[in-house]
Amino acid sequence: MDFQVVVLAGGFSKSLVPLVSKEVPKALLPVANRPVLSYVLDLLEQKSLKDLIVVVEGETAALSVSAWISSTYIDRLHVEVAAVPEDVGTAGAIRAIHHRLTAKDILVVSGDLVCDVPPGAVAAAHRRHDAVVTALLCSAPVSGPSDSGSSGAKDKAKKPGRYNIIALDPTKQFLLHIAAGAEVEKDIRVQKSILRAVSQMEIRSDLMDAHVYAFKRSILQDVLNQKETYQSLRRDVLPYLVRSQLRSELLSNGVQSEENGNGKDAMQNVKILPSQLLANASTPSFHELYPLGPDGSASMTRKTHKCCVYIANKSKYCARLNSIQAFSDINRDVVGDANHLSGYSFSVHNNVIHPSAVLGSKTTVGPQCVLGDGSQMGDKCSVKKSVIGRHCRIGSNVKVVSSVIMDHVTIGDGCSIQGSVICSNVQLQDRVILKDCQVGAGFVVTAGSEYKAESLAKKEKL
Amino acid sequence: MDPRRVPRTVSDPKVRQVGFFAPPDRSQSGPPAPISSSPPVSEISPSGNSLSPVMIPPPRNLSSDMSRHFPPAPISPLRRGRGAADSSIPVGSYNPSEFISPTATADFSEDALSPGWSRKGNSAKFASSLPTGGIGMVKQNKVPASGLTMVSTVRMPKAIKEKERVSMEEVQMEQQPGDSKPLKEKTTKAERRALQEAQRAAKAAAKPEGSKAQAAASGVNAVNASPGKVPKATPSKKDSSSVVASEKRGGDRQPDKDRKKDVPHPRMQFDDENRVEKAKKRSVVRQTEARSRVELFRHLPQYEHGTRLPDLESRFFQLDPIHPAVYKVGVRYLSGDISGGNSRCIAMLQAFQESIRDYSTPPEKSLIRDLTTKINGYVSFLIECRPLSISMGNAIRFLKTRINKLVLNLSESEAKSSILLDIDRFINEKIILADKVIVKHAVTKIRDGDVLLTYGSSSVVEMILLHAHELGKQFRVVIVDSRPKLEGQMLLRRLVRQGISCTYTHINAVSYVMLEVTRVLLGASSVLSNGTVYSRVGTASVAMVAHQFHVPVLICCEAYKFHERVQLDSICSNELGDPDAIARVSGRTEINYLEGWTNSENLQLLNLIYDVTPSDYVSMIITDYGMIPPTSVPVIVREYQREHLWI
Known about the structure:
- The complex is a heterodimer.
- Chain A is of the alpha/beta class.
- Chain A is built from twelve helices and 32 strands.
- In chain A, strand 2 and strand 3 (about 35) form a beta hairpin.
- Chain A starts with a strand and ends in a 6-residue tail after the last strand.
- Residues about 145-160, about 250-270 and about 290-300 of chain A have low confidence and may be disordered.
- Helix content of chain B is about 50%, strand content about 5%.
- Chain B contains 30 helices and eleven strands.
- Chain B has a seven-stranded mixed β-sheet, sandwiched between helices. Chain B has a four-stranded mixed β-sheet with strand order 8-5-6-9, with helices on both faces.
- In chain B, a hairpin with a 4-residue loop joins strand 5 (about 525-530) and strand 6 (about 535).
- In chain B, helix 20 runs parallel beside helix 22 (about 365-385), helix 21 runs parallel beside helix 23 and helix 22 packs antiparallel against helix 23.
- The two termini of chain B are about 45 Å apart.
- Chain B: Keywords: Cytoplasm, Initiation factor, Protein biosynthesis.
- Chain B: This is Translation initiation factor eIF2B subunit delta.
C-alpha cells in the first residue's frame, strides 16, 4: 500500500529511571513478561506490515534491541534496526534515517505504545483525505479504572501534563489546533484564520495523542530540512503543520502541488477539467472553501494542506509507556481489563501461571496475575493483581499486591510488596516492606527495611 | 453452507436423483436423450451473450421454490457447471463482466455470469472451477476421496434454482453424463478402494466431531453412499466426479485466491439468502446487512451503516491485491466523499490509470488476461463500496473491450500506454467534450428572461448555467433541493458566486414555484432505452409537476450514460442509502423522534437514491449527439454501442 513503517523505540528514557538501565532499554521493559516493543510489532505483524524500520537511540540499546528482535521475530518480520545518537529527539531520528524512506507515506509509531487500534485505520484516513499528516487520538482514561487499587488516586494528581488540548472541526476529521498539556498555560491561542475558515471548532481535552502519525514523506522531509531546530515530531513538527495548514508553503514545489492543489488550479482556468468536476462533486472540507473567501469570490488562491485525525473508538485500549506510573498502569491493564492484548490465554481464575512455576502450599495467586516460567513461590504467599517474571524465587509468607516483579528476583520470607516495581536481579532479603517503590536492577534491599514511595537504585556509574 | 448440507443427510442417493429434478410432471416431459452436455450449452450461449434489450427481473418466488426443492440433494459437478453457464440467461445486459477473458472466467462461480464462459461451451472449463472447492474440502476432512463426494454438493441450491429456468429437455440431457453406463464401468479397483477408505475415515472423523457440520455431513454422506446400501448410486456418482477430476487436469487451474476477484453480479438479488451468504464470503469489505428493510426493496443491498468504513479502514494493510489508488477511490465512495455520475466515473478511471501505470505482467501470464482479472478484482471491490452507477458500468465495459482488443504482440509498455491513452480519450471525449457539446446545445434553449428550474446538483446543468451567464443571457435560476443530501446548496453557492440570481427552495414547494418557471433543466444518472430517465430521487416529482404545468423538461445527459435496459419502475433496480440519514435532522439534534428506530420491529425506513422518470414527462433529452426526443434514445444507444465497440 505504499506505506513505510518507522517504529521509534527510544533509548534510555530518563523519565523511567530506575526501571531502565544499560541492559534494559525502554523498548525492552517487560509488560506482562513481554518487552513492550513486542506489542507494537505484534500489532503491525497482525495487520501484515512486515517491513519495519525500528529506530533506537544509542548504540548499545540498538544492539540489545536488535538481538532481541532477531531472536524473536526471526522469520516473521523483516526488521531493520537503525541506531541514532542519543538526544536527537524524534524529529532527529527521522532526519537520521531519511535516506531509507522511499514510500509515499510514512507511518511513525512510537515503540512504547500498547494498543489495539489498527494502524491501517490511521493510514486509510490519511489516504482518504490526501492529508499531510494524520494523527491517532484516543480517549484518555478519564479517571482510571475503578479497580486501580491503592496506587490509583494519589498518583493521578501527578500527571496532568499528559493531556493535550486538541481542537477539531465539527466533522471530527481535521485537526485545527494541538497543544501538549504542559505547554498550556492559562489560555490557548487559536489562529483567527483557521477559526474563520471552519466557523465552528470543538476543543477537547479528553483526547490523548497516541504518537502514531501518518506523514506524507516528501512533506515531512521538507519540514525537517527547513526547520533544523525541530527536535520532536509531537511538539514541533505536528503543531507547525497544523498551524500552517491554511497558508502552506510546503506544497508550492514538488509533486504534491499537483495532487493537493489541483482543485485550485482548475479554478483559475475557465476550461472544464476533470479535476474541477471532481472537486465540485466531492463534499468540500473547509480547506477547499477557505481559499474562495467568505463571500465566495475567489480573490486569491491559497495553498492549503490537510491535517487529519483518526479518533479511536472508546472501546479500544491505548496507552503509552512513558512514565513509571504508566508502566504499572499498563502492566495492570494488560493482565486485567485489556487482557486480549497480552497474548496469553487466561485460566478460569483469570490468571496465567506458567506450568513450570512452582507454588508452595496454601499459596494463592489471585485473578489478573501472571506468573512467569520457572518461578518458585514458598508457602502461604498471596499474589494479587501482579506480574511476576521468570525464574524468581519467592520465599514464604510473601504478599505481592499490584506490583510488577521482573525476572530473576529473589524475595526473602515475610516480605510485603505493594504497588511497586522491582527490576531484574533484585534481591529482597527477609521481612522487607515496600510500598509504592521502584527498585532498580541488581539492587539489594537489606533485611527488615521498610520503604514507602521511594526509588531505590544502585548509583549510576556513568 | 451448513443449512444447505444438512438436509442432504436424510436423502438416499437414489431418491435424490429423482427429487433433484423435482416436479415430476415436468421431468417426464421427454425421454432422456444420450447427448453430452456441451451442445445445449452452445445453444444457450448466444442468448446469454447477446445483449438482450429487455431486462426481466428473475421471478421473486425463486427462493420459496428453492426451499421446496431443497432437500433433494447432490448434483453431479457437471450439473453445477451447467448452472453456472445457464445463469447468464436472465441477466440483463448491464453486466460489467461481459468482456472477461476466458481465464478470468474459468474460476468464476455461478454468480459471476459471463457470456465468455458460456461461449466456451466446454464442460472442462466448468469443471475447472471445482478443484478449488474440492481441494478445500479435502483439506478439511483430511480424506482425499471423501472430498470427491463432497464436491458434487458444494453449490447445489444455486444449481437447483438455475435448473428452474432451463427447459426440462436440457436438464435431461445434462443428466446423462452423470449416470450413463459406459462411465460406470470406468471405476477401477483402486478407486473403489480409495472411496471405501475415505468413507471409513470420514465415519471415524464424524464420531468425535459430531457438532461440526462439515465432518458430520461427510460422514453421513459416506454412510449413505456405502456400497451395501445403495450399490448402484455410488459408482455412478463417483464416476462423474472422477471424470471431473480427469478433466480438471486438462483445464487451466486457477489459484484459489483468484476466486476472490470474481465480480459479484451487479444486480444481485439481495433477498436471496444463499447468494448473499456467498457474496459475503467473497467480499473484501465485511458487510452487515441492515435488519429492517422495506419489503419491496429487499432485493437491493443495504448494509448496516457505519460498520463498513471502520472495518475497511482497519484492514488497510491487508488488502494487498487492491491498488492504493483504487482503494482510496473505494473508501471515498463509501464515505460519500465523491458522488455524482461523472465524477465517480472519472475518479474510477483515473484510479485504474494509476494502477495500470504501476502494473507489470507477472511472468508466464499474458497482459490481456491478467490485467482483466486485476480490473475485475478492483471492480468488485468498488461494487462492494457502493453499487456501480450505469456510467461506471459503461466505462468499465469500454475499458475491458479495449484491453481485450489489444494486439497480442505489443510489448508491455506499449500495451499499457495504449490503454492509458484509451482511458484518457474516454474521459476527454465521452465526458469532457460531451459536456461541452451539451452546453453548446442547451445554451441555445435559454432565452433572456427565462426562469430555469433545476433539481439537486448536476455538473452539466451547472456548466450550462455558468456558460449562459457568461454569454450575458439574462435569466434566473430556481434550485430545488431535498433532504438529506442537500446537494443543491453547493450548486447554489457556486452559482451565486458567479453572480447568477438564484432562488433556493425545497421540493415541497415545487408546485408553487413551478408557476413562474419557463424551463426545467435536469441532470440524469442514466437514460434508458425506453426514454425513461434514471436520476436522483425527486427528479420524477419535479418532472411530473413541470409536465402538469406545461413547462418543458430538458434532460441533460452524456451519451455514455445511456443504457439499453428498460425499466418501468424504480423498484427493480435502485440503490438504498443510509436510513439514518433521513431519520436525523441535521442541525437540530433535539428532533430525535426516530432515535433507536432500528430496534423497532415494525418500522422500516426507506432512503432511495434514484427514481425513474417516465418518458411522458420528458420534453427533450440533450446529449452530445444533439437534442433528441426520448423516443430516439434507442437509436443513440444502438449507434453509440457500435461506435464504442469499434473505435
